[in-house]
Sequence to fold (238 residues):
Amino acid sequence: MAGGLLGSMDSGWWPRGSSSFAAEVDGLFFLIAVIVGAWLLLCQAALFFFLWQASGRGGPGRLRGLQIETWSIVTLAVAVLACDLVVEAYGHPIWKLIVSAPRGNALVVQVQARQFVWEIRHPGADGRLATEDDIEVQNELHVPVGVPIELHLRSKDVIHSFFLPTVRLKQDVLPGVEIRRWFLPTRVGRFPLACAELCGFAHYRMGGALIVHDPESYQRWLAAGATAIGGLEQGVRR
Ligand SMILES: [Cu+2]
Fold:
């Protein structure tokens, strides 16, 4: 429900989700915000209560001789632990889902980060990577809607972080390791792609786009390669 509530929002602060697991991630975010918010209110209430008492307006000398009782510390510690466990119990299946292998036949796309560009190699019409018809584009990830996408993430130089806000996917990209993540795009459109790790002086330039096509436009994109389609002028085919 919470995920649905946040999922229905669409603003710069909270862009609407565009993947199969976005609602779950939103639900977890909402749960953490509620728990942390409740603790914030509780702590502030305690702070103002003690200030009021210490000021003497709550009765003179009420704080004199006040001792911290063991039971209050233990109760607080147990309450904090219980909140942690609730977040863990709610979040663990979502984490497992995101780091698991994709379900069904996924389209594999290779994403290579380097200062300060995303080099994205898409499979061509044959649907397979590392063949003649691969399409390599800078800073644009093109996918068909409703098809699971498996990303093979690498870095040529430093640590970057591959971030698709509407997909609710953020993954550090490390030199020397290939990390695999997946998502299922559920909405057609153009969505932001960013580097979420300060990776050098031109880090700000590592922005791009996730372009989710409907089946016909995806076929057109495949047929034309990256450069020929209107609106994709940033695309560079190699
Ligand atoms: Cu970067």
